[in-house]
Amino acid sequence: MKKLILLMTILLAGLLSAQQRTASPTASLVEAERAFAKASVDRGMRSAFLENLAENSIIFHPGPVSGQKWWRDRAVRPGVLSWQPIYAFVSGSNDLGYTTGPWEFRPKSLADEPVAFGNFVSVWKRQSDATWKVVLDLGSENPAPAGALGIKFAADSHSTVKSRTALQTESERNVLSMAEMEFVKALNSDATADSLVKYLADDVRVFRMNAFPVIGKAASGAILAANPGTLSLHVAGTEVSLAGDLGYTYGTYEMKDRRSGEKKENGNYLRIWRREPRGKWKVALDLLNPIPPPTAS
């Protein structure tokens, strides 16, 4: 009997271990994103966003606003917004993550041809009930893609970095804010693509309006070095995961001509950072979304 109990215990431990290995935090986030996208098609945008946005979520209309309030105040309108995640990343503490991928908009139903295209970026946070909710959502527009994009996800990022105390997390948030200031200073100093590479993660993504996302250090460095003017930021928020390995800043920006100082554009920005094992914060995603000037009445 004792041998049977011992055997059952070993088998149960092995089963639990196997389940833990297959229960990837990244996979759970991807599942949440796919369910969000399905709800948008099945039940409409308003219902899907209200169901998946956190109470303290931020969206941009035209600047940073409460996501829940904006969608509650918005009447149901025709149109189908569909999307799919092609990249996902989760912090080692499994409390913060982000997804990105292409979206399409159709005026009435899925039977219509899409009339607008782009890529979304959603930042997700674990809630007290262990569910994922979107805390920030922003995106860009691009021309119609030539074909379907393949699915690609980051490796399971459940690192050995352990959760920290509230004091340590606040300290890491300050370190990230300093890294952000240093990066923007480099952008405004006529930095070359080669000099900007040191600030970038290997798989960095850069999003600009009316263009497809650029992926990788070399291509992203070239886009960032082509910065058309002097960039100034108004940081609305900075968050860091409990493990201190993933963070983001967001807010509004203004671009001025380098010589005349005349304003060229203003808009919203999102910058996602990942901390390397050696402790350096690197830019993993950079998104500028200009606000169109008001049309004359």
Task: Walk me through the structure.
The protein has 297 residues and is an alpha+beta fold. 30% of the residues lie in helices and 36% in strands. It contains seven helices and 13 strands. The protein has helices spanning 2-22, 25-43, 45-52, 67-73, 166-187, 193-196, 217-225, and strands at 53-60, 64-66, 80-83, 87-90, 96-106, 116-126, 132-141, 200-207, 214-215, 230-240, 246-256, 263-275, 281-290. Strands 1, 2, 3, 4, 5, 6 and 7 form a seven-stranded mixed β-sheet that branches. The protein has a six-stranded mixed β-sheet with strand order 9-8-13-12-11-10. Strand 4 and strand 5 (96-106) form a beta hairpin. Helix 2 (25-43) packs antiparallel against helix 3 (45-52). The protein is globular. The termini are far apart. Mean pLDDT is 87; it is low at 1-22.
Which characteristics define this entry?
297 residues; alpha+beta; 7-stranded mixed sheet; 6-stranded mixed sheet
Describe how the helices and strands are arranged:
Layout: H1 2-22, H2 25-43, H3 45-52, E1 53-60, E2 64-66, H4 67-73, E3 80-83, E4 87-90, E5 96-106, E6 116-126, E7 132-141, H5 166-187, H6 193-196, E8 200-207, E9 214-215, H7 217-225, E10 230-240, E11 246-256, E12 263-275, E13 281-290
Parallel strand pairs: 1-7, 8-13
Antiparallel strand pairs: 1-2, 3-5, 4-5, 5-6, 6-7, 8-9, 10-11, 11-12, 12-13
Helix pairs in contact: 2-3
